[in-house]
């Protein structure tokens, strides 16, 4: 297992995210993405003055009064019941992850988690597990997209994170601020969307985390793409899929990834990448394994 030092603690003076504003914008953007035809309502075409559903239409679908829904969309969700949130989630056609995010934002103190003061630690047994996965790039990611631990194959595929300052071992910073990571992911836009959606889930769980707020503030200043994606208020959990990558040594790879939440700390996830057996990508991973952490220093053959 590689070095797992974490980024330094952000000063306590860092601003925190405004939960009421987050709730308001999340509901507004979810409502804006629906059209009347999507939910079986008549569409009055050019006479509509707002994108998506009106508040009255959403309230009707959810079975609540317009005044009640309006208060909720203005960020006042302290006394809303779980049943009402369920109805609104159904009306907005939220995913399970979005529903959970809405609940965290709306219920405030009842569901808000307090960010632990101590840095996240990776269990020794998990470090041993990473080291045993000799042919599989794998790492553990924690809150705020911080990279907590990784194995030799992950270093060969993504670059040796041990060479970076602790504060830079962070997927959000790598994705939005490092040109080499823009080149590494063939569909960089989708990778960026995924990172922002995961940070949104963190923000719903830990709205008072100053380190998360500082990260969002830094990226908003330094990256126009991050500002654009953060403004969508999209949220989703880490899951599984396929990533197309372009490595400087072995060229293009098609790798499947899987995310597993860690027992004992649901804020940590083990992420693994693998190639289809017998494929060109599997052979590329075998070559990377032979180079190890030197893989990203080797120039491609002319």
Structure report:
The protein is of the alpha+beta class and 302 residues long. It is built from 13 helices and 5 strands. It has a 5-stranded antiparallel β-sheet with strand order 2-1-5-4-3. Helix 11 packs across helix 12 (224-230). Mean pLDDT is 86; it is low at 3-14 and 298-302.
In brief:
The chain is an alpha+beta fold.
Q: How large is the count of helical segments?
A: 13
Helix content: 40-55%
Spell the H/E element sequence.
HHHHHHEEHHHHHHEEEH
Low-confidence stretches: 3-14, 298-302
Secondary-structure-derived class: alpha+beta
Mean pLDDT figure: 86
Fraction in beta strands? 5-15%
From the spread of the alpha carbons, the general shape counts as elongated
**Oligomeric nature of the chains:** single chain
* Order of strands across the main sheet: 2-1-5-4-3
End-to-end Cα distance, whole Å, is 34 Å
Largest beta sheet, briefly? 5 strands, antiparallel
Give the radius of gyration.
21 Å
Number of extended strands: 5
